[in-house]
Amino acid sequence: MIGAALACARVAPPGPRKPAALWIGGDVFLGAAPGGLLAPIGELERGRAGVVNLEGPVGGEGAAVRDGERLRLSQPRAALDELARAGVKAALIANNHAKDAGPDGAARTAEAARGAGISPVGGPAGAGLLEVDGWRIAISAHDLGAGVPGSLEAELAAARARADALVATFHVTGPPRYRPAPELEAAVEIALGAGANVVAAEGTHAVAKVERRGGAVIAWGLGNLAFACDCTDEVDGVLVEVDLDGREAPAAAVVPVEAGLRGRAAAPAPDAAAIYELLERIGSSPLRPEGPRARF
């Protein structure tokens, strides 16, 4: 009995859970030959769960086709395999290309993503719920092309209520710009009011400032991550890394990347210092460089 008691006494109490480690990237269109385009990013962010904006529904061989003034995108099923190999766990499908394969294209994309082990977020899929290191992380995606949805506040509050943390994302269509569009500013305020811990925006293909506000992390523009189309020349992008542990203020860092354009793989930026300087010039919170990333 004494030996058993001593053995029990030597058992260490359970320690605190490690945070849920995420990375969030910008616009991704992998085209007809997606293999390897995200491999360097997957290696860089190994051990973190990835979230990206998937531009263009899954279906067909993968193409970027001009239909008058409109660009229509489609991606092969292999694009999802490439995302999965890079550690992507959630694909945002609420964007201006969601209906490029017809009215049910987004629903088919959501089904295909689930089959690849990736949680679809936005549009017909609604908010996603990721289980990461024992934490429940709600992720939302809304396209602001028609303005701020009237149901946004209620949807975000409902997502936040069933999770330990909320990552709210917004897609903005328009030319590259450093300053946020008015509809994005309005949506971000609603997200913060609903208790979002992280807010991120994509869609314009341009990098914008990163900041902290009241403990929350905001990335106003993630830029391109990989885009296999001659429709964009924006080579600068950023990833945002966050560690979510149920507290109001998550640890956060920004990682500059050189976007994968025209068949080149996305990779860490060769001149991260130039991106840090740009981010600070356009109003970011103070950055503390540490190797390939900067804390903020």
Account of the 3D structure:
The protein is 22% helix and 33% strand. The chain has 296 residues and is of the alpha/beta class. It has a single domain (19-295), classed as Metallo-dependent phosphatases (Purple Acid Phosphatase, chain A, domain 2). Strands 1, 2, 5, 6, 13, 14, 15, 16, 17, 18 and 19 form an 11-stranded mixed β-sheet that branches. The longest helix has 12 residues, at 182-193.
Largest sheet report: 11 strands, mixed
**pLDDT below 50 for ≥5 consecutive residues: which ranges?**
1-14
What's the total count of β strands?
A: 19
Q: What's the CATH H-level homologous superfamily?
A: Metallo-dependent phosphatases
Principal-axes geometry comes out as globular
The fold-level CATH name is: Purple Acid Phosphatase, chain A, domain 2
* CA-atom Rg in angstroms: 19 Å
Average predicted confidence as pLDDT: 92
Count of the domains? 1
- What oligomeric state is this? single chain
CATH class: Alpha Beta
User: What is the succession of H and E elements?
Assistant: HEHEEEHEHEEEHEHEEEEEEEEHEE
- Beta-strand portion reads 25-35%
Q: How helical, in percent, are the residues?
A: 10-25%
Which architecture would the CATH scheme give at its second level? 4-Layer Sandwich
User: How many angstroms does the end-to-end distance come to?
Assistant: 54 Å
Tally of separate helices: 7
Kindly name the structural category: alpha/beta
